[in-house]
Specification:
single chain; alpha/beta; Rossmann fold; Dihydrodipicolinate Reductase, domain 2; 2 domains; nine-stranded mixed β-sheet; 36% helix; globular; binds NADPH dihydro-nicotinamide-adenine-dinucleotide phosphate
Length: 334
């Protein structure tokens, strides 16, 4: 499949170029950037043959079937809608949009156009998260009582731009990381968070947007979730715990873009390491996208998954703003 990359971004250069090129026949034909100079430099550095500032020009290339959108968050909606209208399959970065109604509109437009539309949530593509999900589904920890998510990291200097100072571009740790954590919980437990309480602060990096958040969610099953995200924690590490009536899962260092980290299962029988696959997360995500396009499977995270992760993140922000519990509003998405 030939691709148009919309957004000459860091995630595209560090992970997604390689993930597409790792697929059989995967080729990036165009990069579209708002800046002619930046786009040209990016295309030259990464061996992409065509570059433009005009999205319509790239979308008019009939040899291209797929579009990957990784611009800043406020641009996802118009760019993805244009790609859908042009009949392309779309893999869009998270958060899908700035508002839930916009994200839901993207999903609906893709359905009507008959194209595949997916969200790039990488964590559910990792061997560790897939192994944890299997343990839970097999009943190895009994009934799930609670989940604790540790996702307070240090935003590296080269990413300390719009994320920490531009609310209009979708900055803030909640649209950036809470949205991933919402997807992880939905993926692991197979249910959608119902109600949240939260607090958020700026603790040294955020200028006009939050750089840290803590929240507690309740699930329809009665399970509770505790979630911590930050841009300002250099030494906290990351992790995830799932506690059930018959056992607990401890995952250390797994909230990351790399296939790393350790998972352990603790039950009455003792503590055992869990074997996990070390495959590349983004290659897995693109491979699943190819399967969905071919009608041979499901995208790792599809459009409704992207709407729901955004809905949870927005509920966390609303709860923190209002200082009261907020029910997650999924709109019409099932
Ligand atoms: P970047 O800040 O690297 O890029 C975002 C946009 O900024 C680019 O599309 C480009 O605009 C512009 N830009 C970047 N560098 C320059 C430059 N040197 N000169 C001029 N313009 C520049 O963002 P990220 O790659 O970190 O994030 C992009 C999207 O991907 C976001 O939606 C984010 O949420 C998501 N993301 C997802 C991850 C995942 O694992 N799923 C991980 C990281 C990010 P233009 O579009 O005009 O080329």
């Amino acid at each position: 499949m030939r691709w148009v990359f919309v957004g000459a971004s860091t995630i595209a250069s560090q992970y997604m170029l390689g993930a597409v090129r790792a697929q059989d026949g995967g080729e990036i034909a165009w990069v579209v950037s708002g800046s002619a100079a930046h786009g040209a430099a990016w295309a030259a550095e990464h061996g992409v043959p065509n570059v433009t500032t005009d999205l319509a020009e790239a979308l008019a290339d009939d040899r291209c079937e797929a579009v990957y959108v990784s611009s800043t968050n406020e641009k996802h909606l118009p760019q993805a809608m244009a790609a859908i209208k042009a009949g392309k399959h779309v893999l869009c970065e998270k958060p899908l949009a700035m508002r839930i109604t916009e994200a839901a509109g993207m999903v609906q437009a893709a359905e009507e156009a008959g194209v595949t539309f997916a969200t790039n949530h990488h964590l559910r593509c990792s061997g560790s998260h897939r192994a944890m999900r299997a343990l839970i589904a097999e009943g190895k920890i009994g009934k799930v009582l609670s989940v604790r998510l540790f996702h307070a990291v240090h935003l590296p200097p080269h990413l300390q731009g719009w994320r920490i100072n531009d609310a209009a571009a979708g900055g803030g740790v909640i649209p950036d990381i809470t949205v991933h954590d919402a997807d992880v919980v939905r993926f692991l437990l197979g249910e959608d968070p119902k109600r949240v309480v939260a607090q958020m602060v700026a603790s040294g990096m955020g200028e006009g947007v939050e750089d840290s958040a803590m929240s507690v969610w309740t699930m329809p099953s009665g399970a509770m979730v505790m979630s911590h995200e930050s841009f300002t924690h250099p030494f906290a590490g990351s992790g995830l715990e799932v506690h059930g009536t018959e056992g607990s899962i401890f995952a250390n260092g797994v909230m990351t873009q790399e296939p790393v980290g350790e998972v352990e299962l603790v039950t009455a029988a003792g503590r055992v390491p869990v074997e996990v696959s070390r495959h590349n997360l983004y290659e897995q995500g693109v491979s699943d996208f190819y399967s969905a396009v071919a009608g041979a499977g499901r995208a790792a995270a599809d459009g409704p998954d992207g709407v729901k992760s955004l809905a949870v993140a927005m509920a966390v922000r609303d709860a923190a703003k209002l200082g009261q519990a907020v029910d997650v509003d999924y709109g019409d998405i099932q």
